[in-house]
Amino acid sequence: MLLYLVPFAAVAIFLVAVVARLVRIYSLPVHLRWELYPVAHEQNAAYGGSFFEHVDWWQQPRAKRHVGELKVMVPEILFLVGVREHNRPLWARTFPFHFGLYLSAGLIALLLLGGVLQAAGVTVAGSAGFPGAAVHWLTVVFAYAGTGLCLIGALALLLRRLSDPVLRTHSAPADLWNLVAFVATGGLALLAFLVCDRDLALLRGFTQRVVTFRLGGEVPTLLAIAIVAASAMVAYVPTTHMAHFFTKWFMYHDVRWNDEVNTVGSKLEKKIQAQLAYKVDWAAPHIQGGGTKTWVDVATEEVAKR
Amino acid sequence: MSQPIPFSDVGRPSAQLGHLDDRDLVPLPRPYDTWAEKPLPPLSAKARETYECSLDDTCAVSFPRPKSKSEEDELVRKFLSGLAKLFTSNNNWTFLQPLVLSMDHCAKCQTCAEACHIYEESGRNELYRPTFRSEVLRRLYFKHRSGGSLLSAWHHGDIDIDWTTVARLLELAYRCNLCRRCAQTCPVGVDNGLIAHEIRKLFSAELGIAAKEIHEKGSMLQLKVGSSTGMNAIVVKDNIEFIDEDMTEKTGVKVQTHWDVEGADVLLMHNAGEILAWPENPGAFAVILEAAGISWTLSSDLAAYDAINYGLWYDDAQFARVALLHAQAAKKLGVKKIVIGECGHAHKAMMVIADRVLTGDLNIPRESAMVLLDDLVASGRLKLDPSRNDFPVTLHDPCNLVRLMGVVEPQRRVVRKIAPQFREMEPHGVHNYCCGGGSGFAIMSGHNFAEWRLRAASRKKFRQILEAFRDDVDPTHPKYVCAPCSNCKGAIRDLLAHYEAGPKAGIYYGGLVELIVNAMVDVKPGFLSFGEP
After folding, report:
1. What is the mean pLDDT of residues B320-346?
2. Total beta-carbon pairs less than 8 A apart between chain A and chain B
């Protein structure tokens, strides 16, 4: 019974951690522009050009090419093209790791789908008809490929981090622990599949009972340990720097590609004006904010008289 | 390649934490393959005794060493106070979101390191690794925030919070050009250039500590006198009058600079350093604008005749003050737009960063001179003879103008049209390398800092220049590095002088407008003269 609560707890912690980060990020004020070219939605993103290249650019219509962002983000997320271009030795290790994680996420989705289908009376097995067979075989492929790639990648990353003096010096204990945890989780899951659940039927059955809240039934010990380990990782990841799996969106869209122009009377201008009224308490002699001066006060005071 | 520097060493007192060894510098190509680099002149014993110089072989800030432990403790207390303020909306709404994202998500994969010209050319010196200073700040921040908990040390790594660490972090912030090439390569989007910028800000805004060339003799002088050059309005007008006369004589066409013309189409803003160091640049602008019949003016208002805004590199308050003066001058004259001359950081300051500082009627349109010049050349309003520029030309991309605001092609179109032997540096455009003068380095020359810059920060640019001209190293064949930015020109000037590139390889430098005027049919031939690098 307790085992059945673990995935719920993991998902709850995951959601709380993600929401907490989102709230934190969204609560931060609008910042000064700090874009970095190429900006993917620009018409001339191919060479890194911007709207500033046009005469009287403020009078020209601006069309953001959102498909341009997709053309950058999708390969970046799926294949880590940036790492491949700039750090090939790392890519050889981190790509299998990340792709293994994507497949593992896909595995969870397939297990949920399989569980729902089974609860609806559809047989999910290799010998069943469509869609049961398709879900079955996809689950098997995702399970072995996902955990296998994750294990290989995490192990390779761990060995590199331990053997490279620079990476080792820059690593905090948690950086090493994170990789150890992925190695252990991937290894446990793969071992559990091979030893006691080769066709993933037991895990699908477990998932079915979870999604239908029929929380009971035996699960082999090794598989149970793997479920606990994987759940722990689901809960743990968004509490660490590995939250970049979703915060990367903000780092690109809110910073690197954020070239929204401030125009007179715009919502953006109103936000800026509100922030210019924030009280400053920087203490250097040339500012002496003291918590009483606003940004406008600081910017408009006559420095010559200081 | 130097050995990794444990973070436990950062706070441990020693003569210096790292060392730039001339033998580690990456060899240069022909004709400098046999060049014997002179050793970096050592810091004087007095400098080491007087100032905080325990990072490496140079000293950027010249902050006086505290005289007692209690003075050190007080500085650390102020630093920690500033560190806390850096992460508040009130004090740092300007960059808080990018800072938080970069602090929280570094995977420490070191992909960024190979993109850094200082790290690479110094022989992969660990001290100049882009993540090194960021990691020092990150560890300090999380340790301080958590009250020094073991969990924080486990999660983020440990470091000593003491004056030695703080003093070294101060200097580390001035070993980065803020070119943000490293940020382009980060798989996650972490920006180590931004973190260097924020460290500088913390020291300046809370402790009043900054490199004196950019603060005391930079933005403060500009705000008090009108220009970091020290020129007030009377002096600058005198100098421009002299330039007009000189240019009239040199070009054979009447040159007239206009001052404070109300309702002009264009308020042109030069980096005032041009007026003193490269007077032919503002002169060439005047020739071009007059020939094209543009309605233009300069402003003699406080700070408005100097487009620089050094606050961009280290202090948001100073930045806002200068940006405001620039906008107020334009508003007073009622011009249609401000055009920024050949100054990269002034471009980014006024067009990108100030965009979210200037509101209401101060939000006056701002445009790059590259765009205006491209338009004038393409439209045929200038009569040009490219054969006058029939010598090898390469184009330097100022980081602020190109990587940081996407003005890539206008200046290229001009050069392609007027220079038959144009060739690109590799890489170029938004993937260019910094000249080594970025973020104030070009004007910082205390102790041996300028010598350090030549060896570590500017060396990559010299390599690029040499490779662009590798087909012709004959010193009797003049070659031109077109650098449309004052600070870049300053760095390249020093670089070419250091390597005797004029007499040794025939390499000279200048701006874009000089190249245009050299090709103008109505101007006496030989505007560009290749005598001095």
Report:
1. 98
2. 278
